[in-house]
Write a structure and sequence with these properties.
mainly alpha, two-stranded parallel ribbon, 56% helix
């Protein structure tokens, strides 16, 4: 009769599988190949002061050359959208708050918007100047 410990030993030995593991490489080239791309790029850019300065100034040169064009084309896009969708005329919507309507530009803007049908809320400093107008 077989002992229960002998059968357990046989089962454990039959379940063991040999796995070939590649040897761990300890060379710097192998470690560098496994390093992420952005980390390698950062190490390259900071490896030499001249490389760092050239990339720094090229970045800002590109930024200042590109940003005015991006702003121009963005404003052009908004203008074209406004031209072709609402044809330059805006319908009155919610109320408009205008400050400084005692005289000058604020008073003129208030009168123009009110004539177009906008609901205008005004803030005055001198009420007696605009008693009959507003």
């Amino acid at each position: 009769m077989l002992n229960s410990e002998d059968t357990k030993q046989e089962k454990v030995e039959s379940m063991a599988v040999a796995v070939d593991m590649p040897p761990a490489s300890s060379t710097p080239e192998a470690e560098k190949a496994q390093e992420p791309f952005l980390s390698r790029l950062n190490n390259f850019l900071h490896s030499n002061i001249y490389v760092y300065l050239i990339t720094y100034y090229l970045y800002w040169l590109g930024f200042w050359l590109f940003m005015p064009m991006a702003g121009f084309f963005t404003m052009l896009g908004f203008g074209l959208y406004d031209l072709f969708t609402v044809k330059g005329f805006r319908k009155p919507c919610g109320p408009v708050l205008i400050t400084g309507t005692s005289s000058g530009f604020g008073l003129d803007l208030t009168l123009q918007l009110a004539a177009q049908g906008w609901k205008v809320r005004v803030v005055l400093m001198y009420v007696d100047k605009t008693k009959g107008i507003v």
